[in-house]
């Protein structure tokens, strides 16, 4: 297993051969997923959701249908199982023809259907298997009874690369154990891992009493709690299928498992947020729009791609430090991401344009494959040329409203602010977040006034935008920053604490842990 959590026979930087391969006849192949699941006539979940997710993520998806449901936003009216022999016919048909990177399973409603799936997977081995153990619909309809539990436990889970149960499904697979807290989810993930899957993701969306939606990921050694603010919407039908097929799509493109899971969680959060007000159907559980990424928010003409929680551990590179430690920007960025950086900024003050552009392009590729946004400091031209996710500018750089008009509505723009007035202006000009500091004295930026924790708090209180603190922050004082009691302070941005260090990976991991611990205390 590689340090990023690579799967089965995939090396750390495995990329789908089909994604990159060009034959002598210049035939372009694209990553391919096969979904084996049930049809949802309302098209919010099941096969229909899987097809939409893969299309939205740029991956081809074939479909083998196990059951047809009569279903709408009010619930499931009836279910018709396809004969196992016919499920097998479909499986043979596509598995013998296509070169699938990943198979994803959803509704497997009978033992016989699981049997034919297992037989076909043994006849036609695939690179990875994502198992979403669908048992009950969002509306409460049983889609696979308890009779399938033993074949799931004994034969399907052991060959899965990842399983993605919600708390009810995890409980059923574990014989009815109670799962009511995040700590229970961790214990459940561990027990499920003992059944054989390489990775386990227990989804906590149904957990009561939490303003965050928390999923627990376990790789056999380490736990990761993946948190995101709960989106208040009735349009949640199909979130489980969407998450699992997005994981499958990202794996097919060559992501490591943890990155695929993070991208998928963010995809679901963004889709929910974008679709929170749409009205399709008259029932309690509406579908959401998987193609939000192709559209603009009609009100602000902005696309909802920026997640303020990504400011949690903001890694800002520095060419001088990289030179000092004899590492390339690309290696520095990779290590920071592996250590837990949640957003990257390339701040290369002395780089030549041509060289910087090449390095920025390589960093864009790395960041995309890990689902981490990449911003460029000061240089709008470089950001445009490498198609970065956005830019960070200061008070003496290009004005934010002009940056917005050059970059368009979809890019992330951050702006440095030391005062409440600047924070107000940043919001008016269309920035997405504020970088505020220097909080503490620093040698990294010369002639930079220190505003202290009080100055930071003043900016946070005045700001309608999320804020990231910067300046002299490291493992020893990050906690004091996060404790200032400002809900819109989302994280810390650091340069020397990560990059003026012997091992970027170790420092990033330590700082990430410090931030996580301090968040728990708040
Ligand atoms: C996240 C973040 N916050 C603040 C800054 C500082 O930007 P600026 O004031 O433009 O100074 P330079 O970085 O350009 O020297 C930042 N880069 N990132
Ligand atoms: C770019 C910048 N803007 C305000 S302080 C600062 C430097 C932060 O560097 P460090 O994290 O090494 O103190
Ligand atoms: Mg600047």
TrEMBL record:
Keyword Transferase among record annotations: yes
Main location group: plastid
Domain Thiamine phosphate synthase/TenI residue range list: 313-498
GO molecular function: ATP binding; hydroxymethylpyrimidine kinase activity; metal ion binding; phosphomethylpyrimidine kinase activity; thiamine-phosphate diphosphorylase activity
Superkingdom of the organism of origin: Eukaryota
Pathway it works in: Cofactor biosynthesis; thiamine diphosphate biosynthesis; 4-amino-2-methyl-5-diphosphomethylpyrimidine from 5-amino-1-(5-phospho-D-ribosyl)imidazole: step 2/3; Cofactor biosynthesis; thiamine diphosphate biosynthesis; thiamine phosphate from 4-amino-2-methyl-5-diphosphomethylpyrimidine and 4-methyl-5-(2-phosphoethyl)-thiazole: step 1/1
Domain named Pyridoxamine kinase/Phosphomethylpyrimidine kinase: residues: 40-283
Annotated GO CC locations: chloroplast
Function: Essential for thiamine biosynthesis. Bifunctional enzyme that catalyzes the phosphorylation of hydroxymethylpyrimidine phosphate (HMP-P) to HMP-PP and condenses 4-methyl-5-(beta-hydroxyethyl)thiazole monophosphate (THZ-P) and 2-methyl-4-amino-5-hydroxymethyl pyrimidine pyrophosphate (HMP-PP) to form thiamine monophosphate (TMP).
Protein name as annotated: Pyridoxamine kinase/Phosphomethylpyrimidine kinase
